[in-house]
Amino acid sequence: MGRKKIKMEMVQDMNTRQVTFSKRRTGLFxxxxxxxxxxxxxxxxxVFSPGGKPYSYGKPNLDAxxxxxxxxxxxxxxxxxxxxxxxxxxxxxxKKVNERLDCLKREIxxxxxxxxxRQAKLESAGDERFEKPVEKLTIDELREYMDKLExxxxxxxxxxxxxxxxxxxxxxxxxxxxxx
Length: 180
Hints:
This protein has 180 residues and is mainly alpha-helical. Helix content is 66%, strand content 7%. Strand 1 and strand 2 (54-59) form a beta hairpin.
C-alpha cells in the first residue's frame, strides 16, 4: 500500500490538524538533525503549534544558534570605518531595532484592523442560533458554539505568541545593541 497524496492546504478539522502538526514537526526536527549531523551544520528551528505552543530544535542548541545569528547580523550591519568609541556603533543598531519595532507596530495595527473587520462580518452575518441566551441553546448547539470559540481562541493565541516572540527578539536585539 502506497502513500496517499494530500492537497497542500490547511487542514480544517482541529484534531486532524493537531495530529498532522505533531507528525510533521517530528519529521522536520528529524530532517534538521540529519542535516546537522551529516554536514556539521549549526541550525535552529522555532515552530508554533496551531494552539500557539512554541516548539524548538537547535544543534548544538537554540540559544547558541540564535546568538550566532544575531552576531552575524550585527557584523553585516556594522559600518566599515573607524568610529568614536561608544558613539557611532550603536546608532546603526538602534536604527535597525527602531525600524523593526515600527514594522511590528504597523503589523499590529493592520491585525487590529483585520480583527475589527472580521468582528463586523461576524456580527452582521452571525448565526442566529447563537444570538439567543446560552441557557436556551441545545447541547449540540452548545458543543458547536464551544468548538467555534476554541478555534477562535487558538487563532488569537497563535497570533499573540507570534507577536510576543517578535517583540522578544526586538527586545533582545535592543539589549545587545545597548550592551555594545
